[in-house]
Design brief:
21% strand, binds adenosine-5'-triphosphate, 15 strands, elongated, nine-stranded mixed sheet, six-stranded mixed sheet, 403 residues, single chain, alpha/beta, binds magnesium ion
């Protein structure tokens, strides 16, 4: 229903995969309700109503097209439609559909009714025919069952009926928060923002840890990471980013360890810090953007040697994806342009000429025994700075906890 004259008064939301989740369904719906409310906070006049199989936004004159871009980022929604609500009475339904047809230039159409209230006195087919004939009689619209320009959908519930045409795809997945919380290792690259997105999509809330090595890494590099977090924030409301001062630990690694193992040891340290922060923040897993074979530190041998220092599960959402697939997704969600900004990351600055591709746990442990890294790890945690990131820059200072 794309014309100006016709006024929608609701948005009807169809639940995603959560409807298959049996007894967890209530929690899912409750969480989705909270997340939708949070995502649409700035629309003061709307009301959100949840039922066991649908959610409805009462628009109260708010423009549904203004709401659409925000709703599209809420996981747990399979699709949504702008709707007009009328009483569940065939005369009211016919009048509303006719008003809709008369409000725009004639098109080809098809009526698709669905009754969730089975006691309604007409079956779906009868509703289809009754509604189509009133449109045919009073307008120039023509029926086309196979390829209609407009599909008029009618959902009949006990009290209310919803009349809709367009159906917009939702973000899919599970509502963020139903799956607990994970700590994402967020670099300024392409992969870790995608790992973050895919994790939230499965209903897991995220916090992020970023390792910064000033003055070797710049303020711009850090701002780039916060900007990436800002681009990811709409999917869950807001994101906490833990900025870890990593310079001293990194210099100690280069002083005491063989150059070819520097990256291996550095990543073992990153994992240790991520686990400590995860435990402190009640995160049940660590997430990163490692992709098998992408670089020397991401061979299976490397992953095993690096993973060996921690016990929390490490989720690698992009582990089996090709770079082009990751880039496609980064373009789609809008993180790509920021990710390719040139600022150096701590990994790129200290890259050895010949990093080992098959590091062993034994050698890594031996090299680590040469210096007191525990104290340096403690300092990283103590001096860690927390930034609250909101979808818009202005709100960065606000502190409020959703998960
Ligand atoms: P990305 O993989 O995100 O594109 P990258 O390619 O620069 O960035 P890699 O060297 O491939 O990063 O590191 C693999 C993963 O390790 C990253 O995806 C990220 O999860 C984590 N990581 C690397 N550097 C950092 C950092 N400075 N802070 C936090 N996590 C990091
Ligand atoms: Mg990478």
């Amino acid at each position: 229903m794309q014309q100006d004259k016709f006024v929608y008064d609701h948005i009807l939301i169809r639940y995603g995969e959560l409807s298959t989740k049996g007894k967890n369904r209530k929690d899912f719906i409750r969480r989705l309700h909270t997340n939708v409310k949070h995502a649409l906070m700035m629309f003061e006049d709307i009301e959100i109503e949840k039922t066991h199989d649908r959610m409805y936004i009462h628009l109260h004159q708010t423009d549904p097209f203004a709401i659409k871009p925000y709703l599209e980022k809420v996981f747990g929604i399979s699709s949504f439609s702008f709707a007009l609500r009328v009483d569940s009475d065939i005369e009211a339904i016919k009048a509303a559909v006719l008003a809709f047809a008369q409000s725009q230039a004639p098109k080809t159409f098809k009526v698709v009714a669905r009754r969730s209230y089975k006691q309604f006195p007409m079956i779906s087919d009868e509703i289809n025919r009754a509604v189509a004939s009133v449109v045919l009689k009073n307008t120039e619209w023509k029926v086309n069952v196979k390829e209609p320009q407009v599909k008029i959908q009618i959902e009949v519930h006990e009290q209310d009926t919803y009349i809709m045409s367009d159906k917009y795809p939702g973000a899919g997945g599970y509502p963020v928060g139903v799956g607990g919380k994970a700590m994402v290792m967020l670099s300024g690259g392409i992969d870790s923002p995608i790992a973050s997105y895919l994790t939230m999509k499965r209903g897991v809330a995220i916090e992020c840890v970023h390792y910064a090595s000033p003055p070797y890494t710049s303020a711009q590099a850090q701002e780039k990471v916060l900007e990436l977090a800002r681009l990811l924030a709409p999917y869950q409301g807001h994101i906490l980013v833990h900025i870890v001062p990593f310079t001293d630990l990194q210099l100690a690694i280069y002083e005491h360890c063989d150059e070819s193992y520097a990256i291996t040891i550095m990543r073992r340290m990153m994992y240790r810090i991520a686990q400590r922060l995860a435990e402190k923040q009640n995160c049940l897993a660590i997430v990163n953007g490692e992709s098998i074979g992408q670089v020397a530190s991401q061979t299976l041998e490397s992953m095993r040697t690096i993973n060996d220092v921690i016990s929390l599960p490490v989720i690698r959402p992009v582990a089996t994806m090709d770079k082009v697939e990751i880039i496609d997704l980064a373009r789609k969600i809008g993180t790509y342009e920021t990710s390719i900004l040139p600022w150096e990351d701590c990994c790129t600055i200290f890259t050895p000429k010949n990093p080992v591709t098959k590091p062993t746990i034994r050698k890594a442990e031996y090299l680590e025994s040469r210096f007191d890294f525990e104290q340096l790890l403690d300092e990283c945690i103590e001096k860690c700075e927390v930034v609250h990131v909101y979808p818009t820059k202005k709100k960065d200072e606000v502190t409020e906890d959703l998960f």
